[in-house]
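Changelog-adjacent note: as of this version, every example in the card shows the full chain rather than a window. The one below runs 270 residues end to end.
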Amino acid sequence: MTPFTTLMAQLADKPDGSSLTVTDDWAQGRTLFGGISAAFCVKAGERAAGDGAPPLRSAQFAFIGPASGPLRLSTEVLRRGKSTVFVQADLHGEAGIATRALLTFGAARASVIDDEELAAPATLAPEDCPPLHGKPGQGPGFVANFEIRPADGVAIFSREAREADNRPDLLLWARHRDPAAGMGPAALIALSDTPPPAAVRLMKVSAPVSTMTWMIDILDPPPLADDSGWRLLRSTAEVTRHGYSSQAMTLWDQAGRPLIIGRQNVAVFG
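Full-length structure tokens:
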């Protein structure tokens, strides 16, 4: 396997528009895993924003076509203000543009408001939960780069899960297998896209699903002193109709602090 940090390091000293090398273990069917496509765009956008740019606060991704064949990145700074920077980052494949990202960087500002109401649900500890994919080779190729565990200890596609609750909601622990991946925006975004869309819980038979658009806000609590790397992710399919599913998602750290909140629109081919 190619570690996450090795993939991201390709952008460190290369000019804009440079090619990327991605191994098959980061594939998802005929395309690159969407979380890595988004992470590449974020890394490229951070580089374009420049040293000293404020933190990434929000991102919007459109997965336009397959990220396959020779890959390259391009970026454009759309606006640089006193406290914000807007960057467009595009990932191109052999068939044209694959992923377009609009990234918003914003400096912290003084405010009398400090409010949060997004508590993490109660779960089993990660070490008490079985792996989502029990055997090597199960699931898409990219999942081998992550540890993923159902947070209630019940395999999400098992008969037990179907009989207990058939609502389209997933609650999972996940972390990078690369211990150096860290807690930066690119690593968190890649991790947030690891589960299947929650709409799969509604399917009677297996069928393809594909994320169309993804909008996220990135929160910035200080790093944990003792961080095992586990993140708790909830994905909920709120409305699924006419072949599309509108989903909400949240990512928390192991202390229950929210890190990412977002929405996805997913095409459902079944």
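Structural remarks: The domain at 4-107+121-219+229-268 is CATH 2.40.160.210 (Porin).
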